[in-house]
Amino acid sequence: MANVATDGAGAGGGAADISISVDEISAIHNKIQKISVELEKLEESTKSIASIKFYEEGKAKKALEVYDKANKKAMDLYDNYAQIAGLVAYTINAMVEQDESLGQEFYTKLDLPE
Fold this sequence. Notes:
Largest sheet: 2 strands, antiparallel
Distance between the termini: 21 Å
Strand content: 5-15%
Mean pLDDT: 77
Structural class: mainly alpha
Order of helices and strands: EEHHH
Shape: elongated
């Protein structure tokens, strides 16, 4: 666990310590990546089902509309996770810039190139 001093962040205007767990942030980053991969697989599966020629005619065609709606919702969720991933990456990069030892921990935990 790393401690980062921040100027003027305390209630009295003095410096305050913020405890940062590299393990926790790394775990969050990795979970977001796994969820994103699963949502990408879901999109591929949904598109595959929707492209089956059997569903182009008859009563089954109406059922196909459900796949389009489900796929849109999954992609909305994917977009949300992409935004979260961007914020986590930004946070990690800011921490790396501020603290060299903290940065080294992230490089090790996330297998990032140095």
